[in-house]
Amino acid sequence: MKRTVLITGCSSGFGRLTAETLAGRGHSVFATMRDIDGKNAAVAHALRERAAATGQSIHVLDLDVTSDASVVTAVDAVFEHTDRLDVAVNNAGIFSGGYLEAYRMEDIQHVFDVNVYGAMRVNRAVLPHMRRRGEGLLVHVSTVAARTPFPFSVPYAASKSALEALAQGYRYELALLGIDSVIVEAGAFPTAILDKMTWARDEERAAGYEIVEELKDRSFSGLRDYVSSDDAPDSRQVATAIADLIDLSGDRPLRTVVDPFGAGIRRINEVAAAAQREVMESAGLGALVR
Ligand SMILES: NC(=O)c1ccc[n+]([C@@H]2O[C@H](COP(=O)([O-])OP(=O)(O)OC[C@H]3O[C@@H](n4cnc5c(N)ncnc54)[C@H](OP(=O)(O)O)[C@@H]3O)[C@@H](O)[C@H]2O)c1
């Protein structure tokens, strides 16, 4: 079945690859990104050219997930082209590093604004339409770090844990309304994420952490080395996993792990799924758990 899909954060990485993968499978894609007439003009142009050359359906729209107005304008623009929106892929996100104590509040708030409230803004804009039609799918791109937060990038992990709680909440609350909500948990992949990451900026606070500085630096240089090595996995695996979830006709799993080292996270997810079902059933809410 061909679906109409809106994706956020298509200027690079998983977002762009997902737009290309879905369009290649015949879906109608609304590839959104910030600043399509400025810093992202070249990629917006390339996606449009690709659509024109292949006959695939890719519309490029401006969407900044931190702006209510931008999200509403983009979703309204989708309905100038089509009368249905089947799927929203909440992919836009930023990574961030540094000691937790060295985050100023405005910096941590920004991480949450993009990674958490950004998805809520998008879901809030698309859900009235999906509810009216009694069908739809919300996809949330998360990380294995949402399940096991790594030190020195805790606000990122915390934001993705929050995103996962929301995704699970949408799933329960929308289950009887015909709308599905899923999470894709990715490991480390070679996208633009490390080039675009933000850092904790309070150097005075960071100065107190000298004893773990080498460990922090080593963990980031290890991550950089891994994603720029031949061992790094192909980022298209994540795009394929998202596309497979969209194409799935039966029950979709709540969580899909895409990570060559993901065995431990899959184990956590299996235990959590069984425990959550038990808790929901004992609360009389079993009907909301697929
Ligand atoms: N790569 C990994 O190892 C990894 C692992 C687990 C999860 N993830 C998640 O995967 C998702 C995609 O990341 P990626 O790895 O593909 O990195 P990426 O190449 O840096 O892509 C991130 C995308 O998000 C966009 N974005 C950032 N702030 C935005 C905003 N305010 N409004 C709209 N778009 C915004 C970026 O656009 P601009 O170009 O305008 O900044 C970019 O298009 C993120 O949610 C990330 O947390 C990545």
Brief summary:
Helix content is 50%, strand content 15%.
Question: What report would you give on this structure?
Answer:
With 290 residues, the chain is α/β, with parallel strands linked by helices. The protein has one domain: NAD(P)-binding Rossmann-like Domain (Rossmann fold, 3-Layer(aba) Sandwich), CATH 3.40.50. It is 50% helix and 15% strand. It contains nine helices and nine strands. It has helices at 13-24, 41-54, 68-81, 105-133, 154-174, 203-206, 210-227, 236-247, 263-282; strands at residues 4-7, 28-33, 57-62, 87-90, 96-97, 136-143, 179-186, 198-199, 255-258. The strands form two sheets. The protein has a seven-stranded parallel sheet with strand order 3-2-1-4-6-7-9, sandwiched between helices. Strand 2 (28-33), helix 2 (41-54) and strand 3 (57-62) form a beta-alpha-beta unit. The longest helix is centred in the middle third of the chain and has 29 residues, at 105-133. It is globular and about 60 Å long. The protein binds NADP nicotinamide-adenine-dinucleotide phosphate (NAP). Residues 8-15, 33-34, 40, 64-66, 91-95, 114, 141, 143, 186, 188-189, 191-193, 196 line the site of NADP nicotinamide-adenine-dinucleotide phosphate.
Q: Summarize the main sheet.
A: 7 strands, parallel
Number of DSSP E strands: 9
Task: Report the C-alpha radius of gyration, rounded.
Answer: 19 Å
Bound small molecules, deduplicated: NADP nicotinamide-adenine-dinucleotide phosphate
CATH class: Alpha Beta
Overall pLDDT level: 97
Helix and strand string, N-terminal first?
A: EHEHEHEEHEHEEHHHEH
Write the CATH architecture name. 3-Layer(aba) Sandwich
Number of domains: 1
Strand content: 15-25%
Structural class: alpha/beta
Tell me the strand order in the biggest sheet: 3-2-1-4-6-7-9
Weakly predicted, low-confidence segments: none
What would CATH call the homologous superfamily?
Answer: NAD(P)-binding Rossmann-like Domain
